[in-house]
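We close this part of the discussion by returning to an individual protein. The sequence in question and its structure tokens are set out directly beneath this paragraph:
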Amino acid sequence: MKFNGFTQDDFNVFEIDGLEDRMTAIQEQVRPKLESLGNHFAPTLSTMTGEEMFYHVAKHARRSVNPPDDTWVAFASNKRGYKKHPHFQIGIWGTHVFIWFAMIYEAPGKVEFGRNMEKNADEIRSLIPGHFVWSGDHTKPDAVPFSSLSQNEFITLIERVQHVKKAELLCGLQLDRETAIHLSGDEFIREVESAFETLLPLYKMN
């Protein structure tokens, strides 16, 4: 299936009440698009990183009551899973699409990664554009533009991932709903490719 871009209907699934009904809509409406993006970007990221990359579409299998507020496809060098590894993500909330590099709390290497980030904080500032955003929690939609973070605030974010067990570090691009639906499939893919190229130095720091 060729990826033809996101539509209003894709975002509207997150307004559906109830776990079962929303999950059905995600599976039928959004998951095929995430599968398509997974198929497209796994080889691209394998070439970029020099490691074989596998894609993992979110299953939300552990949910029993609350319906998911977002869904995604993740890319990692492990065939069985991505959460314990540095990874890339493309996903969708009801308000925006996200393109992330992520090191989340399950990753055993996140302390060492945080130390590498701290050593290279000035270089990261020069490599990552100001309109890219940072987050310390993948379960929340909020993120802060790099241009809004002072160097001290940025260091604090990096230190937190080294010392707080549940802390995470994500960096990437958010495209609001209206922007995303006006991009063709090819335009969106180019946007993601460009973002992944920008984020690649962070992946290389793990």
